[in-house]
Amino acid sequence: MTDLSRVPGTELLRLDHQVCFSLHAASRAFGGVYRGALKELGLTYPQYLVMLVLWEHGELPVKQIGEHLRLDSGTLSPLLKRLEATGYVRRARSAEDERSVTVALTAAGTALRERAVCVPQRIIEATDLSLDEAVALQSLLARVTASLDAAALQG
Asked: Which of 4, 44, 73, 80 has its CA 20 to 30 A from that of 99?
């Protein structure tokens, strides 16, 4: 690891030296590729993420979907409303707790999964990474996320 105290402060302030900006730029680039890949499915990227969670876990309370995606209910509610309008999900108040809303796939939402199978492959191909490189990058990003979460808790 480089000793940051030996790097001139002005160098540390260069935009191209910011890891966070590199991640931001990569995220925006991913967004552009996902827009094209998801257009034929009629989904936005955030809607696609919700569908991934539901395809993987089945019916869930909104709160749990938010935990999986690191989104609050204020952000999720409009997404879920649009997905419900497309006929891919249905929302219902929990019978056990009326404050809780559960989300389930409809038959159309379940069927959409088959059409979405090609999306991850298209994205990996667009990165020009080998499968091993993509897996290594994902592992490294998970480690970075965990470290940043821990640092944020320490305040």
From this structure: 44
pTM for the full predicted model:
0.88
Residue 53 belongs to a domain with what CATH number?
1.10.10.10
Note whether residue 4 is domain-resident: no
Q: What letter would DSSP give residue 98?
A: T
Total count of residues recorded for the chain: 155
φ/ψ bin of 14: left (φ > 0), alpha (ψ from -120 to 50), beta (otherwise): beta
Beta bridge partners of 91: 103
Domain containing residue 52: 43-112
- Whether 56 shows a pLDDT value over 80: the answer reads yes
Q: How far is CA 105 from CA 56, 82, 86, 143, in A?
A: 11, 13, 11, 31
CB 102 within 8 A of CB 92: yes
